[in-house]
Amino acid sequence: MRTSYALAGALVLVTGLAGCTGVGSGSSDAQPSGGASTSRTTLRLGEASPVQESVASASKGARYTVAVTQVQTGTEADMDNSGLEQDATDQPTIPVYVRATLSHKGGKAMRIGDMTTDLMINRTRALIVIMGRATWPDCPLFDTEKKLSAGQSEKVCQVFLIPAGEKPAAVELWQGYYNDPLRWLVTS
Description:
The protein is mainly beta and 188 residues long. It is built from two helices and 15 strands. Strands 2, 5, 10, 14 and 15 form a five-stranded mixed sheet that branches. A hairpin with an 8-residue loop joins strand 14 and strand 15. The longest helix has 5 residues, at 76-80. The chain is globular. The termini are far apart.
């Protein structure tokens, strides 16, 4: 049986070819427009993001943080055993498992799915299975519709597919068109 899938979400995983550095090492400070202050855009794994504000219509204005806690590269065997089939013409891919803690900081209740849509790896959004089901070792599905209220947190695991042979360099949190993305550097 063939299982279809699509890429979605917005936590970005930046990758670099083996032996290359996909992202600079060390902290990066971004100068916001107006030059009033600097804002750090590079974070360590486990470090929470600055407070983000929801732009989703149902939770507009709600505040939350994201802390990427672990990034683990899977294997071709994980892909083979997932239940997904790749087209013979596609480049082989491998999964990257990104574990994060989402924390609601205030405002309206907010869907977990709205907190994870801005995470990406290699400008790739998290995998969403359209038809069928995929299974991954130690990365259970989470309920994207579950809502968190102020003070609540949830640990999630998302799967990103990258070309076989590439290594993740950083996970990015997109912050809109006018702000640099936040980056959690991946150390191998």
